[in-house]
Amino acid sequence: MSRARLLPVAAWAAVAVAAALAWLAAGGPGPAGAVQQAPAEETPRGDRLYTTHCARCHGADGRGATDPHNRAPTLVGMEAARVDLVLRTGRMPPADPDGSGRGRSWSDRDREALVAHMTALFNLEGPLLGPEPGDPAVGREVFATHCAACHGYTGDGGVAGGGAIVPRVVGLDPAVIAQAARVGPFQMPRFAEGQISDEELGDVVAYLDEVAVEQATPLGLGELNPVFLSAFAALLTLAMILSCLFLAGRVTMFPDPEPPPDVDGET
Amino acid sequence: MTPLFRFLFDALDARLRLRKPGRAVVNKVFPKHWSFLLGEVAMFSFAILVATGLFLTMFYRPSAEPLLYTGAAQLYEGRTLPAAYASIVELSHDVRGGLLFRRMHRGAAYLFMFATVAHLLRILLTGAFRRPREVNTHIGTMMLILVIALAYTGQNLVYDLLAGSSLRIAYATLASVPLIGDWLVVWVFGGEFPSEVVSRFFVLHILILPGLLTGLLVLHLALVARQRHTQFPRAGVDGQRYVVGEPLWPSQFAASTTLVLAVGGLVAAFSVLVPWSDVDLHGPLRLGQASNAGHAEWWLFWLQGAITIFPAFEWEVLGMTISHMLAFNVVLPGALFGLLFAYPFLERRLAGYDPDLDNHVCSRPLDVPVRAAIVLGVTAFVGMLTLAMTNDIVARGLRVSVESVMWFFRIAVLAVPAVVAWAAYARSRSVLRRRRAPGAAAGSGGDAPGGAAPANPKVSA
Amino acid sequence: MTPLFALLFESLDERLRLRKPGRKVLNKVFPDNWSFLLGEVALFSFVLLVLTGVLLTMFYRPSTDPVTYQGAMSLYEGRELPAAFESIVRMSYDVPGGLFFRRVHRGASHLFIATTVLHMLRVLLTGAFRRPREVNYHVGIVLLMLTFAAGFTGYSLPYDALAGTGIRIAYSSLLSLPYVGEQVAYWIFGGDFPTGNMIPRFFVFHVLMIPALLVGLITVHLMIMVRQRHTQFPRPGIDGHRFVLGKPMWPSQFALSTTLILWIAGLLSAAAVLIPWSDVLLIGPYVPGEVGNNAQPDWFLFWLEGALRVFPPLEFRMLGMTVSGAFVAGVVLPGAIFAVLVAYPFVERRFYQLEGDWHVLQNPLEIPLRAAVSVGTFSFVLLLSAAATNDILSRMTGIPIEAITWFFRLTCAFVPPALAAGFWVYSTRRLARKNMTVPRNEAEASNTYAAKAREA
After folding, report:
1. CA within 20 to 30 Å of B79's CA: A51, B170, B393, C264, which one?
2. Is residue B444 pLDDT above 60, yes or no?
């Protein structure tokens, strides 16, 4: 083949390869709505929000700070899911200057604008997760295998030692559940695709939804831990003791000396 | 008493005042006769059943789910079996002493059944059911029903091929009851044949039936203690007012202890020599499989015998279906047990006893003609039905066709009891006539029924 | 009597001579006091437990073999579950009234154990264990241990994740026995954990052996009580040593007991509707190797769990055997507590040089040793029980769990002796104030009481 003919073929091949790479980089094929590539968009709204609430600690350039009084990490290249998570759970901006406590609850519009803005500015990586609820039966098994050790059999939470509290996960937003599993905030480990697939995350969400609506009794109680059940057991026993007091008709344990009754006893 | 025992006894006696009741218990009188020990034999075999049973429950798995058997039995190594049957194979081959305990359990069960029936026959033939002991007799009859139920549920827990056939028959029997048959089936079998039935039978066999049996046993013994044991007439002793026999301590205690050891030893010896319960070659229960020459256990032969020899039938009456299963598996035993319950009152009417008089003295089997006829006749009937179940073995052994054996039994089952009843009646009448005849005092000895010179007007012969 | 009842009674009486023993039974005297009803409540809860239990056995499958659940509960539809758990799900969702009877059974078990403990506390505090009643007191302690065993085996039967963890802990406690640990664990469990024999064996324990022992020992307990007569509180003008004052069995006590059992049944039914007593349906089946946070046993085992949590994880070798913290906390400590309870009647008798038989109850605040030992033992058990909730407390207060554990370590070690000492001092001062000593025999006690009555 002559060089003149080869050039257009090579050019089209290069374009095709570049397009394929770009398509793959954009997240490729996936279940609709399960995993969305974080939209990147600089907006005045996002800019205003960032400057007002975040720039003081993370810096206008998002690089954070390294002095001992400001431990805000750099936002450049951080996972979009992590940013979305801390905003959804209200951990950012923190209530206390040292970075703890929940300071603000964001509206959806504000949060989406902020995340999109930061994605554009700081190249936040990775997708945002918004799983569709799946099969709760599978979700229960996945939860029991991976999550119950810290979050309890029915997602009530618990204690993780060293002062760390494991939060209750029942009733949380599906995005929060899924993103926390992928991101692994604080002491929580990260669960990669190979351990819990995206579909299984949806199943876990469905299971927790079912636990949330579980109403085992007219009092609205669900599955109770034995400690709380012991309170009810004590209540039941107390009710029984009161019944005995009522039935026997005598309240005092050691009656005061009284005039002897006029009856015959029996040996 | 040794010093240690004395110290313990005094400590308890000071708090519980045991001396007086203790003395009453220790001095309790037990009349002596070999047939009075049959009840004790039954009780001791029940004790052996409970002891071996507790061991077996540690290894038995009451479930029909498939389980992979990996153990010493070559026949089943690496195969999937229902869990119940797998645990039986495991008990027989992999647990040290397991097969011995299984055989002892079954051997003791056979002894229990046999001794209970023999005890019942003794009661019936010696008239120990007469007033004031009717209540106790009814309790005993109920215990017999419980023993049969226990044996049946226990046999089916093994979940082998024979158990499958027997369960199918039970299912059909329950279903044959008019009006409530379907509901009964769901209630007993849990609706899904056969897997639910194992756990139901397990609960029945280890909890409900032994619980009821123990309760009735305690009541039975308490009544015997209160009303005093009956005894055979003795010359010169007013049997209606005095019981003559051995005291509990030391004589009866020694005799009973010997009996316990003998029963235990015999059951153990027979368990070593006789393969009572080896079900290895039967195989597990598989739906749709059955075997030829499959018999029920011997104590169910009387029910199966009737079905074997009489033709199957099914009648439509008033919208209900009356089948041969209903007739022979429900109506026949119902009628027999009904007769048992009614018998004390029936004999009182037939033999003309005074309804207000108590009786504490046994009579010889042939002393009351009506009793001899009915009891021996019905026993012969049940015996013939039992034998009828062996028709295929008889046919094979004698090289006769099964149909002719069947016809023989059809006639025998009705004719033999009638002959036996008539013969017993006749013999009883002649014995009584000879006793009452003047000049026959030499032959009567001291065996006159009712004892010598009853002084208490409230008792009868 | 109605004519029918008269006819039946006459025909039985002619044969069994029921009149005289019947009259004795009907006239039996029951002293009056609300605390004497605690034992009856325990007995009636046991009756309800047996009745609901027999019903539950009709549906429960004692096996851990995998079964596919097909029924109304969508969370497990089509999934494989251990047969025991599957039968529990089926019982709760597919059998009409199944969950109700499960809850009544569970609620009755809580009431049974609680009232047994309270009854024992009453006996201990009022001195009903004194001679001649030591034997009955010991029978009662054995009964208490049997109720614990029944409760533990019972809540393990559903084989849910929480119960399975509890069984694992029991297995490990057995392993911790020096020398014989492995053999005993293998022998009782039928293999290494988890075995397929566990649930069938627990079933036999829970359904056959323990109820049989309970029925037998309760009968002995009641028979001894009938023979020795119930104790009673002192009353002026009545020689409590020789006479029992109270209600006759018929009609008064019979009416009271009937009301009591109907009321208990009603209360338990209401509780079963309103309170989800351990439904365990959301917890899921036990999968060996999986654990869950927030795991506690039922409340009556909190003291054991607390002891295990609070005791430091020591392990030392001694005389060729390994003694671990689990052994000390799980075996030695409960043994010591039971030893104190069992030995106490004899200790008190020796300490105060008591004489003779006692049939009248005493005020524990006037007997220093009893006040101190009772308060000390029960506060110790209560603090250990509270220690079992250390993770719940940590979550609720935000205090790190290590701090809470140390708090309980210190309180369990120092508060019970302090309370015991405090009550000892108070009791001694009270005696001094009233110018009394601990009476040595019942005559002395009734004289003191009569003197106080005259003063009042």
Report:
1. B170
2. no
